[in-house]
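Troubleshooting: if your tokenizer reports a length mismatch, compare your output against this known-good record of 335 residues.
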Amino acid sequence: MTRYANTQVMCAVCASVSEQRTLQCVTSFERPDLDGRPSEMARSTMDTWVERCPSCGYCAASLAKAHPSAREVVPSEAYRARLHHPEAPVLLNQFLCLALLHDAEGLARDSAAVRTHAAWVADDAGLEALARRCRSEAADLLLNAPPLKHWEDREDPDWRGWRGVRLVDVLRRSGRGEEALREVDRVRQVGASSLVKQLLAFESAAIARGDTGRHTVDEGLGLPLPLERRPTDDPLLQYLVDNYRRLLTDTEEKAARMETFNTEEGPRWATDQPEILALLTEGKAGLGRALERRLLADHPDKVVINRCSKCGALARTAKARQCRVCPHTWRETPR
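Known-good structure output:
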């Protein structure tokens, strides 16, 4: 679901008031591209990521807040030329104007981020050379920025190294394959999760075949759907998740949704977290049996394992009165 609102905003640079379309909420159901571009519906909201004052041309994530250098940069010749560049989409120009403001403040990573956003606009417009240039400028900024741990912006240890994957992808899509491969080696040396190692292997293979196109995280992992949306592949486990999710711990729910992906060493669970791997020692079927025992022991008054008395198959819900496998019904049984 995506919701917008039109709001009156006062420009922090020139004090003029204008109506701006702002994003109130958005939902994305799939994993992003390898350079970080979000999936739909979020990927179609880029026009709300930067606001432009129609009076003075100030571009910012919020016009109500002035960048420290805005009053010097906005009237500058370079800024005005970029703002009104005739051969680029308006939104791309706005992102690059914001990048100039970040440049003036020495915010290399912020500038790289909005230059990458500009590349996405160029992608949508079919401007391949311009997209490549925006990505290349973003890559230069990131390569020369003070080093950060690649996983600082991710709490999930299963995605340690994700920041590095994004830089590799920006380099690859800029046509800078050799530098991308050096970054692959660096991320591996710094430390990367199994998921990220697989993405790095995917990037390396793409570089080897000269591929500079767009790819998603799911492509890199060989997954047709995001992990959290895939079925559990075990009837008992699926029944417990569908009917008693509220009684599961976060770790149990993650284990129930966990999938495998292919690596050079063969299939493996898509996690490095020992507490999740411990639950999956006997696979999804073993996890289902273990959860059944725990839930019945901990919540005997709440949990019902509703099986058909004829064939033993699980019903869809705890209150169902018809078997999904055989014709048997037990509708006369009190609920």
